[in-house]
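Bumping my old thread because nobody answered last time. Still need a sequence for this structure:
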């Protein structure tokens, strides 16, 4: 299958952009892995016959053994074994990169649980696969209505039909344990298929649904991020970010995964900073720490009697001054060690641009607009009343 810009022949071959190892628009497969070995004429290991197959745009992936040594390519629809029956998916990866992915997930090549790849999908398999995908949205709406009618504290995030249309997996999130035995019976009577209920977390739900983050790009979890590492408030504190739950939380309601991306860099940079840096005593007075610029390896201090005048010190200079204080010595002034001495700033004219436009300000603006329109309409009616009295 292909994205909206691609065309598909009768045999399922993608005739679109023909990009090396993946779709150039990024719309064909979620969770893509770029195959850097696509142009190599021979594989490093010709006997390695395990391929990675993705289901429903990459939301679920699995490894299958190509026992028949079929000539496959990325994006090709194939039929694979399932626990009961068969399933239809896309070849997302093959060759040496599959071995690397299996090693990452700690799956052995000799694992007996690896199922077989049966055949390349024919036209009937492709048509059935498309029909199933087209009706999933309607079935999910109906499934949510049934769960709500039974007063179950759960949220159905997505459903996925098996390729042979004999089984449907319902993905749901719930805070507490849910007794869905009666729900499964109702689903089986309603949809006439085998039902499997699978509980997922809030991050997995966001990955399956997708969306656009505050950065303006598609969510990492729905495009390339395969595993979810725990994100704690320490990641926010180490990077000197303000703890604002509205800004730090993603669409899943948890702390954003991107808070971990630069955390190792900040931790490495923090190792060179001294432990206690709150204040430095000088003959001119006590200077208090106001800001730590971790990546620049600088500390910003301010005197109590000189509000708005900041002194930037390097980490080495700050260590030297703190060591002098421990030895009961005081330097003359921070001016002799400062990298940059900022001009005094009038804080009354300073505006905090971070979060300046919020939902509250927009609602206040809309309320003022409505009041102004109501006032104008009221004055207009008063004017009409005076004209009628004169007549």
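Sorry it took so long. Here it is:
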């Amino acid at each position: 299958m292909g994205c909206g810009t691609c065309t598909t022949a009768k045999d399922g071959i993608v005739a679109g952009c023909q990009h090396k190892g993946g779709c150039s628009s990024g719309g064909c497969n979620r969770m893509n892995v770029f195959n850097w070995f696509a142009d190599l004429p021979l594989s490093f290991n010709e006997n390695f016959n395990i391929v990675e197959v993705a289901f429903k745009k990459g939301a679920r992936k699995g490894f299958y053994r190509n026992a028949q040594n079929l000539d496959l390519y990325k994006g090709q629809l194939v039929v694979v074994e399932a626990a009961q029956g068969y399933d239809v998916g896309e070849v997302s990866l093959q060759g040496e990169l599959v071995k690397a992915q299996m090693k990452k997930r700690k799956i052995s090549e000799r694992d007996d649980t690896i199922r077989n790849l049966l055949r390349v999908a024919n036209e009937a398999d492709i048509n059935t696969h498309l029909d199933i995908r087209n009706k999933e949205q309607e079935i999910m709406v109906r499934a949510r209505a049934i769960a709500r009618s039974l007063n179950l504290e759960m949220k159905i995030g997505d459903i996925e039909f098996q390729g042979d249309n004999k089984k449907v997996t319902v993905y749901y999130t719930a805070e507490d344990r849910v007794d869905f035995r009666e729900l499964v019976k109702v689903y089986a009577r309603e949809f006439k298929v085998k039902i499997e209920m699978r509980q997922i977390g809030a991050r997995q739900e966001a990955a399956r649904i997708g969306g656009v983050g505050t950065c303006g790009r598609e969510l990492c979890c729905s495009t390339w991020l395969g595993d979810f590492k725990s994100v704690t408030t320490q990641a926010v504190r180490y990077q000197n970010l303000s703890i604002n739950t509205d800004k730090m939380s993603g669409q899943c309601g948890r702390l954003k995964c991107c808070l971990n991306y630069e955390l190792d860099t900040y931790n490495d940079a923090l190792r060179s900073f001294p432990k206690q840096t709150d204040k430095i005593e000088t003959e001119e007075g006590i200077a208090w720490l106001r800001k730590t610029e971790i990546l620049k390896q600088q500390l910003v201090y301010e005197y109590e009697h000189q509000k708005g005048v900041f002194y930037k010190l390097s980490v080495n200079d700050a260590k030297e001054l703190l060591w002098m204080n421990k030895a009961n010595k005081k330097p003359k002034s921070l001016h002799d060690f400062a990298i940059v001495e900022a001009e005094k700033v009038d804080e009354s004219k300073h505006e905090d641009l971070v979060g300046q436009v919020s939902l509250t300000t927009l609602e206040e603006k809309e309320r003022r607009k409505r009041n102004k329109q109501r006032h104008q309409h009221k004055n207009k009616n008063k004017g009409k009343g005076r004209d009628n009295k004169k007549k």
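The longest strand covers residues 86-94. Let me know if any region looks off to you.
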